[in-house]
Amino acid sequence: MKLFIDSANIEEIKKANSLGVLDGVTTNPTLLAKEKQKPVEQLKKICREVNGPVSAEVIALNASDIVKEALQLSKLSENIGIKVPSTVEGLKATKELTSLGIKTNLTLCFSASQALLVAKAGASYVSPFVGRLDDISFEGMDLIKDIRLIYTQYDIKTQIIVASIRHPLHFVDAAKLGADVATVPYAVIEKLMQHPLTDIGIKRFLEDWRTLDTKQK
Ligand code: G3P
What we know:
alpha/beta; globular
């Protein structure tokens, strides 16, 4: 499973990239707004930091405006993929963008029917938001299970990005269910390698090592 960072913050992206296991970046209007920079300039900076795909989201809501905005955004860098909302207008725009060879990431996906139709329109990625479903007492991971089943059954190539990840268990469940990508906020990435028993183990090994006298070492 690929690991993307869900962030528009350069420092976070640099730190995640330095781990050597980062495959890409997803942004959204909220994340870009937090940075208080011109979004286009921020996206260019992000694309210079990472080798993999970088998702940039359109603000437009109707199909022709989505396509226009997507064409502008895709000029920023070869890495850019266009995040398009999972709506009827988004579906029409995706069909057109696919025919133009532009990679798309259909975002705000909350149902398997949305996931199936966006795949039929040629979406490169679909982003089901598990955390936001959990927030309203729906099991977010059930949606990943359903989409994986449907995509596998019909040999659909659209990649599933598990988004709206809130904790390490979401990341592990995404992998268990065969998601293609997990996009993870930096605060959660930091937790993925943490384990108290690892820390206790290191402490004990070092304490025992220190009991040897210098000659024995
Ligand atoms: O980037 C989309 C998604 O990951 C947003 O997550 O935590 O705002 O629901 P969240």
